Amino acid sequence: MIRKFATVYAGHVDLPDRGQDATPANERRFSNEHLAGVFAKSEAIAKVMDEGGWDTLWMAEHNFQQEGYEVIPNLLMAAVHLCHLTKTLKIGCGFNITPMWHPLRLAEDFACADIMTKGRTIFGVGRGYHTREVETFGAPMLDQNANRELFEEQVEIIFKAFDNERFSHKGKHYTLPPEVPYRGYTLKDLTLVPRPVHLPVECWQPVVSASARGLDFMVKHNIKGAVGGGAATMEQGPITAFQAAGHRAGKDWKLGENLMIGIVIHLADTKQQALKEIVPLYEEHAKMFAPLNFMPGMTKEQVAAVARRGGWYEAGVPTVEHYIKLGGWFAGTSDELVAFLKNIESRYRGL
Q1: Residue 138 DSSP code
Q2: 185 — phi, psi (to 5°)?
Q3: pTM here?
Q4: Which residues are paired to 121 by β-bridges?
Q5: Are strands 259-262 and 264-267 parallel, antiparallel or unpaired?
Q6: Hey, which CATH number is domain 6-265, 3.20.20.30, 3.90.1750.10, 3.20.20.70, 3.40.50.2300?
Q7: In the predicted model, is pLDDT for residue 276 greater than 80?
């Protein structure tokens, strides 16, 4: 049954206007002072969640976003800070974009956060989807096969470092350690110092394409899956596919087990009020994510329309009601939300 509730704060700053008639995403640009306000905003959110008994605050790690949508570049530093301001709230890394890191630097930094937050930092890995940041840091993003290949080798290294007192690795991209002389001997293995003390490390990864290769890799490393958007209630999609991957590995998983489902939720006193209020928020979300192919079902022509100011629905852009029907968005009252969540719980017994 559903036992834990979390929210995602991807790291947006306060926007002066929202919606399709407001500033187009590519024209947004904020001062450094305004962008730095993300940290005070994250502190306020974390404190309220901690007081309200929430389980986890998930945050996103991104770079160079002068548009103001996702402006936290280092989740592990943020996690340590926020855990020191709260009592029980966990901070989830959603996600450490692994191709932008050296895998051992990421492993070391997480180990430090794990120790300094007494296990309240949750690890997460992702391949990335912003060409601007991944390619800028020298990793492939346009070449999806190369990106996945690099990511998989990096994750292999990270878990070797977490789970073994001594480790070594030889692959296409990394030879660790290099066989060099050091203090009178030749290096043959390494020890991560420090290693995480809360083992095995709980790790999450977004489920996007739900390919068999990707899901089998997650199951191999005991990585849990985060499903979001309209796919969240499609049983023949990623939820069923993740269960099938577990079964291939001999795991007797119930439907939804080792997954979390992300729903965009807006509450108001009446359903009509919620639907009215969610529209500019949905439109701002679309401005950010449609060009990155994260709005299921949108055509190229509709994505092009989203990049312009106004006239979206005349161009056929799906309304928020469309995504509400798919199940990835919700607008209504608190009582209606309880019924919505109980329905999800009844469908996915392992969630």
Answers
A1: T
A2: -140, 170
A3: 0.94
A4: 91
A5: unpaired
A6: 3.20.20.30
A7: yes
